[in-house]
Amino acid sequence: MQDEPLGGVDPVQASDSLYRRLARGDIKADGKVDTSAFPRSQSDLSLYLERLTSAYEVSHSGERGKRGVGIFSAKIPIGFGIKVVRKQVEGIAGHAHHEFDREISRPERQHIADNTEVVPSYDPRTMTDYDDPRPQDLIDKYGLTNRQVE
Protein backbone atom coordinates (compact mmCIF):
# COMPACT_ATOMS: atom_id res chain seq x y z
CA MET A 1 0.00 0.00 0.00
CA GLN A 2 1.44 3.39 -1.00
CA ASP A 3 1.38 6.32 1.44
CA GLU A 4 -0.99 9.16 0.64
CA PRO A 5 0.45 12.56 -0.29
CA LEU A 6 0.84 14.91 2.68
CA GLY A 7 0.09 18.53 1.95
CA GLY A 8 0.17 17.88 -1.80
CA VAL A 9 3.60 16.24 -1.69
CA ASP A 10 3.95 12.71 -3.03
CA PRO A 11 5.62 10.23 -0.66
CA VAL A 12 9.38 9.81 -0.92
CA GLN A 13 10.32 7.24 -3.55
CA ALA A 14 13.56 5.32 -4.17
CA SER A 15 14.19 7.59 -7.16
CA ASP A 16 14.27 10.70 -4.91
CA SER A 17 17.33 12.32 -3.37
CA LEU A 18 17.65 13.72 0.14
CA TYR A 19 19.74 16.58 1.49
CA ARG A 20 21.32 16.53 4.95
CA ARG A 21 22.85 19.60 6.65
CA LEU A 22 26.49 18.99 7.64
CA ALA A 23 28.42 20.58 10.51
CA ARG A 24 32.19 21.02 10.41
CA GLY A 25 32.81 17.70 12.20
CA ASP A 26 30.53 15.82 9.81
CA ILE A 27 32.99 16.19 6.92
CA LYS A 28 36.25 14.26 7.24
CA ALA A 29 39.63 15.58 6.10
CA ASP A 30 39.35 13.50 2.91
CA GLY A 31 36.03 15.23 2.06
CA LYS A 32 33.88 12.19 2.81
CA VAL A 33 30.91 12.35 5.17
CA ASP A 34 31.31 10.97 8.69
CA THR A 35 28.64 8.85 10.39
CA SER A 36 28.27 11.68 12.94
CA ALA A 37 26.12 13.39 10.28
CA PHE A 38 23.49 10.70 10.86
CA PRO A 39 22.55 10.36 14.55
CA ARG A 40 20.63 7.29 15.69
CA SER A 41 17.52 9.17 16.76
CA GLN A 42 15.10 10.02 13.98
CA SER A 43 14.07 13.20 15.83
CA ASP A 44 17.65 14.51 15.54
CA LEU A 45 17.91 13.73 11.86
CA SER A 46 16.52 16.43 9.58
CA LEU A 47 16.42 15.58 5.91
CA TYR A 48 15.22 17.69 2.99
CA LEU A 49 13.57 16.33 -0.13
CA GLU A 50 15.66 17.51 -3.07
CA ARG A 51 12.71 17.90 -5.45
CA LEU A 52 11.20 20.54 -3.12
CA THR A 53 14.22 22.71 -2.32
CA SER A 54 17.83 23.51 -3.21
CA ALA A 55 21.17 22.89 -1.53
CA TYR A 56 21.48 26.64 -1.00
CA GLU A 57 18.16 26.84 0.85
CA VAL A 58 19.09 23.83 2.98
CA SER A 59 22.53 25.23 3.86
CA HIS A 60 20.93 28.48 5.03
CA SER A 61 18.03 26.92 6.94
CA GLY A 62 17.99 25.97 10.58
CA GLU A 63 18.63 27.76 13.83
CA ARG A 64 22.34 26.98 14.01
CA GLY A 65 23.35 29.11 11.04
CA LYS A 66 24.84 28.07 7.72
CA ARG A 67 25.93 24.47 7.29
CA GLY A 68 27.38 22.28 4.60
CA VAL A 69 25.04 20.02 2.65
CA GLY A 70 25.26 16.38 1.65
CA ILE A 71 23.01 14.53 -0.78
CA PHE A 72 22.16 10.84 -0.97
CA SER A 73 19.67 8.60 -2.72
CA ALA A 74 16.45 7.78 -0.86
CA LYS A 75 16.80 4.21 -2.17
CA ILE A 76 19.44 3.60 0.54
CA PRO A 77 17.20 4.04 3.61
CA ILE A 78 14.21 2.62 1.74
CA GLY A 79 16.33 -0.47 0.98
CA PHE A 80 16.82 -0.90 4.74
CA GLY A 81 13.06 -0.71 5.27
CA ILE A 82 13.26 2.82 6.65
CA LYS A 83 10.42 5.14 5.67
CA VAL A 84 11.23 8.78 5.00
CA VAL A 85 8.30 10.78 6.37
CA ARG A 86 7.41 14.43 5.97
CA LYS A 87 7.53 16.64 9.05
CA GLN A 88 7.14 20.25 8.00
CA VAL A 89 8.98 22.81 10.14
CA GLU A 90 9.47 26.57 10.10
CA GLY A 91 12.28 28.13 8.09
CA ILE A 92 13.60 28.57 4.60
CA ALA A 93 13.47 24.88 3.61
CA GLY A 94 10.88 23.80 6.19
CA HIS A 95 8.38 22.79 3.51
CA ALA A 96 10.83 20.11 2.33
CA HIS A 97 11.73 18.77 5.81
CA HIS A 98 11.55 15.00 6.38
CA GLU A 99 12.74 12.46 8.96
CA PHE A 100 13.26 8.71 9.17
CA ASP A 101 10.41 6.80 10.82
CA ARG A 102 12.73 4.99 13.24
CA GLU A 103 16.19 5.00 14.76
CA ILE A 104 18.96 3.86 12.45
CA SER A 105 21.63 1.29 13.34
CA ARG A 106 25.38 1.86 13.10
CA PRO A 107 25.72 -0.21 9.89
CA GLU A 108 22.81 1.72 8.34
CA ARG A 109 24.39 5.04 9.36
CA GLN A 110 27.73 3.95 7.89
CA HIS A 111 26.20 2.90 4.58
CA ILE A 112 24.25 6.15 4.25
CA ALA A 113 27.34 8.24 5.13
CA ASP A 114 29.49 6.28 2.66
CA ASN A 115 26.98 7.10 -0.08
CA THR A 116 26.50 10.78 0.75
CA GLU A 117 28.17 13.32 -1.51
CA VAL A 118 29.07 16.80 -0.26
CA VAL A 119 27.31 19.45 -2.35
CA PRO A 120 29.14 22.72 -3.04
CA SER A 121 26.89 25.16 -1.16
CA TYR A 122 28.69 26.14 2.05
CA ASP A 123 31.84 24.54 3.47
CA PRO A 124 31.70 24.59 7.28
CA ARG A 125 35.38 23.59 7.50
CA THR A 126 36.62 26.73 5.74
CA MET A 127 33.47 28.86 6.22
CA THR A 128 33.39 29.34 2.44
CA ASP A 129 30.00 30.32 1.07
CA TYR A 130 29.56 29.45 -2.59
CA ASP A 131 27.61 31.95 -4.61
CA ASP A 132 24.05 31.11 -5.50
CA PRO A 133 22.62 32.94 -8.49
CA ARG A 134 19.26 33.27 -6.75
CA PRO A 135 19.69 35.04 -3.37
CA GLN A 136 17.22 37.77 -4.34
CA ASP A 137 14.63 35.06 -5.01
CA LEU A 138 15.03 33.88 -1.40
CA ILE A 139 14.72 37.41 -0.09
CA ASP A 140 11.54 37.94 -2.10
CA LYS A 141 10.03 34.50 -1.45
CA TYR A 142 10.52 34.46 2.33
CA GLY A 143 10.54 38.19 3.12
CA LEU A 144 14.10 37.95 4.40
CA THR A 145 16.59 40.73 4.83
CA ASN A 146 19.94 40.66 3.02
CA ARG A 147 21.60 39.85 6.34
CA GLN A 148 19.59 36.63 6.74
CA VAL A 149 20.69 35.37 3.32
CA GLU A 150 24.37 36.30 3.71
List keywords for this structure.
150 residues; 5 helices; single chain; disordered N terminus; 21% helix; globular; alpha+beta; two-stranded antiparallel ribbon
Question: Quaternary state, please?
Answer: single chain
Overall mean pLDDT: 77
The SS-based structural class is alpha+beta
Q: What is the C-alpha radius of gyration, as a whole number of Å?
A: 15 Å
Question: Topology as H/E string?
Answer: EEHEHEEHEEEHH
Number of domains: 1
Question: How would you describe what is shown here?
Answer:
- With 150 residues, the protein is α+β, with helices and mostly antiparallel strands.
- The protein has one domain.
- It has helices at residues 55-59, 75-79, 106-114, 135-142, 146-149, and strands at residues 17-22, 47-49, 68-73, 84-86, 97-100, 117-119, 122-123, 128-129.
- The strands form 2 sheets. The protein has a 6-stranded antiparallel beta sheet with strand order 4-5-2-1-3-6. A two-stranded antiparallel ribbon has the order 7-8.
- Strand 7 (122-123) and strand 8 (128-129) form a beta hairpin.
- The protein is globular, with a radius of gyration of 15 Å.
- The chain starts with 16 loop residues before the first strand and ends with a helix.
- Mean pLDDT is 77; it is low at 1-6, 132-136 and 142-150.
